[in-house]
Amino acid sequence: MKPETPTVMQPPGFPGLPSNWETEWLTLPGVDAKTQLFVWVHRKKEVERRPARVLFVIHGFGEHGGRYLHFPHYLEKSIDVCVALDLRGHGRSEGIRGYAENFEQLVEDVETVLPRVVSRETQRYGKIELHLFGHSMGGHILLRLLRRLKGVPVASASVSAPFLGIHGPVPLVKKTAARLLSNVWGSLQLATNLDAKTISRDDGVVKTYVADRLVHDLMTPRLFTTMTAAMKDTLLRDEAFEVPLQFQIPLQDRLVDSSKSLDLFKRLQGVSKQLKTYPDSFHEAMNDLDKESFFEDLRSWIEAHSSA
What we know:
Elements: E1 21-29, E2 36-44, E3 52-58, H1 71-75, E4 81-85, H2 103-125, E5 128-135, H3 137-148, E6 156-160, H4 172-184, E7 190-191, H5 203-211, E8 218-219, H6 221-236, E9 245-250, H7 258-267, E10 273-278, H8 291-304
Parallel strand pairs: 3-4, 3-5, 5-6, 6-9, 9-10
Antiparallel strand pairs: 1-2, 2-4, 7-8
Helix pairs in contact: 2-3, 4-6
């Protein structure tokens, strides 16, 4: 059954979908074959380029794929299709808000959905070229996905403010409580009390974020403890990626510890990599006052690793 027509909240002044683009949406099963995951697909009405360029987007914690509606506007000349998955427990996808059996289940969900998306788009266009983008928690998911993705050719990948560490210390009492609850009540929903003003310097973005009913700030003990463990593991891995990888790091991030990302980038060996930083941007550089610079860097990276 086709999902109900979705609506999207756009911040004031943000561009909508270009007139020569259209949207479809679908649901695909996650790794457990039970949880249905919502997928946005924006595409040009007419695509002449072959292979067609597909950008697959993995969103951050608490948000959803509908917040990436402006990507086709800024990347219109570089991509032909933009696909955005709502992770389990997020957006219009099924699942307890802010919960996964473990962090790796989120990675496995993307690993399950991605080949199906590739297959659908390949059937439509005959040949495609795949580019990946992940923001915040989605950036961390993407870094782990690239270590295990087999059989799906990827032309390039970009991670924005990857969630590899929390900005500022987490109170010991919270960490202790999360560890204790993880095994006895791992799905307990607890508010993170995230300050929406830390995501962007654009007041319109902040107000829209707060008003968006599909956005939440709920984190469960199971997800918190397994995500923290995954962070430590990811930061220990400095071997090369096979896929060209760009880091896009806002330096005024008050949610994610940017130093962790900068250190990992520096230590990565033998990989085609690029670092772009945004000195004044908050956590969501793609939604901040200088977002044009962010998109120009992403566009250039995609173009530099495209065959057509």
